[in-house]
Amino acid sequence: MNVELHKWDIQDHLKTDEDINNYLNAVLEEQDNELLLEVLKDISIAKNMTKEAQKAGLTDEVLNDPASLSFPTVIQITRALGIGFHTYKLAKDK
After folding, report:
1. What's this model's pTM, rounded to 2 decimal places?
2. 66 close to 31: Cβ distance less than 8 angstroms
3. Which residues contact 15 (CB under 8 A, 6 or more apart)?
């Protein structure tokens, strides 16, 4: 039995603003700077906005040192990509 494998690329799945928002929201729940940087990079590629993201702070320095990522930089990058944030009340843990 032969199994045919296909290359999986997130870019094939980030076609709409809803796709992008769902992807980013899922990653924000993880609270992982390194993963967040990768996702912002993925989104900038999907939106053909890598230069805008770099100017806003998604630089090689930040990509190589996720601990240096600050919240203001995240806001700058997401705004450059046309993405905003909203808040909501978290359910209490039982």
Report:
1. 0.80
2. no
3. none
pLDDT digits (tens, 9 = 90+) for 59-78: 888 888 888 888 898 899 99
Query: Dihedrals φ, ψ of 22, to 5°?
Result: -65, -40
Alpha helices in 14-58 (DSSP H): 17-30, 33-46, 50-56
80 Cβ partners below 8 Å, 6+ apart?
A: 49, 52, 53, 55, 56
CB 27 within 8 A of CB 47: no
Q: Which two tokens stand for residue 86?
A: 């909203």
Residues 6+ apart with CB under 8 A from 83: 20, 21, 24, 43
